[in-house]
Backbone:
């Protein structure tokens, strides 16, 4: 059991899931977000914090032996927004981990959008080239590289999870390949904290889908065996919506519509 597990972005979809289901991993959950997190439960501590505040992040990380980093900008946005949360915020977090009196093991919520421009006919493993599909995807590539450097230079272990589509059920046909059940996600986090030697792996966050594009053989040592398969939702999706045409980005690229999005420009100050 961990002494103190920090969950950043604890008000987001996945952060709130972690809050509900990871209490058994630590004596204390330290929960952080920019917005209100409500009342703390018996084994919770709530710290309101912005990832861009370096001094505050150092206080937040101090004493934590585990970090589940779900905080940051979760979708495509302007560069200023992405940079502040996902670039500067990552540097602040890892610098805080380096300076902490306890060296934490970190889970970094990366994304399938780090490899989104790969074709859906291509099977990928952890060594496949990155092909980000937007500024958000670029920030996740940066985060993976930063985690690797802090492991090589300072021994801070991180598992970068390239999360596919972690939802109660897939929303479209593309997600039949990218879906990860909530149960499989929680099981993965448990295994990451339980394994004796983590290192700095890249893990594809995906269930045992029949139509999966991703190969996790390089991280078999974690002992993670996802149990669910999105195939059980195929008939429902077929009945509810038409499949995308062959030239639709949702049927061509692993990143789907992110690949067709434009660059979101910051408004110039007036």
Residues:
């Amino acid at each position: 059991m961990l002494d103190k597990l920090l969950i950043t972005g604890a008000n987001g979809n996945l952060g709130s899931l972690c809050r509900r289901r990871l209490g058994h991993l630590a004596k204390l959950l330290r929960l952080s977000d920019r917005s209100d997190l409500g009342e703390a439960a018996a084994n919770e501590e709530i710290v309101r914090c912005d990832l861009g505040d370096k001094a505050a992040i150092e206080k937040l990380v101090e004493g934590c032996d585990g970090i589940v980093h779900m905080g940051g900008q979760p979708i495509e946005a302007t560069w200023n927004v992405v940079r502040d949360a996902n670039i500067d915020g990552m540097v602040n977090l890892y610098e805080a981990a380096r300076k902490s009196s306890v060296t934490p093991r970190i889970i970094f919520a990366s994304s399938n959008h780090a490899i989104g421009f790969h074709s859906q006919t291509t099977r990928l493993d952890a060594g496949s080239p990155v092909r980000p599909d937007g500024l958000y995807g670029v920030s996740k590539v940066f985060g993976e590289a930063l985690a690797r450097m802090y492991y090589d230079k300072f021994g801070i272990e991180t598992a970068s999870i390239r999360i596919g589509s972690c939802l109660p059920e897939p929303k479209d046909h593309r997600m039949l390949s990218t879906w990860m059940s909530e149960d499989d996600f929680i099981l993965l986090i448990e295994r990451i904290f339980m394994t004796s030697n983590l290192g700095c792996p890249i893990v594809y966050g995906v269930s045992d889908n029949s139509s999966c594009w991703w190969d996790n053989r390089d991280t078999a040592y974690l002992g993670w065996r996802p149990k669910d398969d999105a195939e059980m939702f195929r008939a429902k999706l077929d009945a509810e919506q038409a499949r995308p045409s062959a030239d639709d980005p949702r049927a061509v690229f692993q990143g789907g519509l992110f690949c067709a999005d434009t660059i979101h420009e910051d408004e110039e100050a007036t």
Remarks:
- Residues 2-260 form a domain with the Rossmann fold fold (CATH 3.40.50.720).
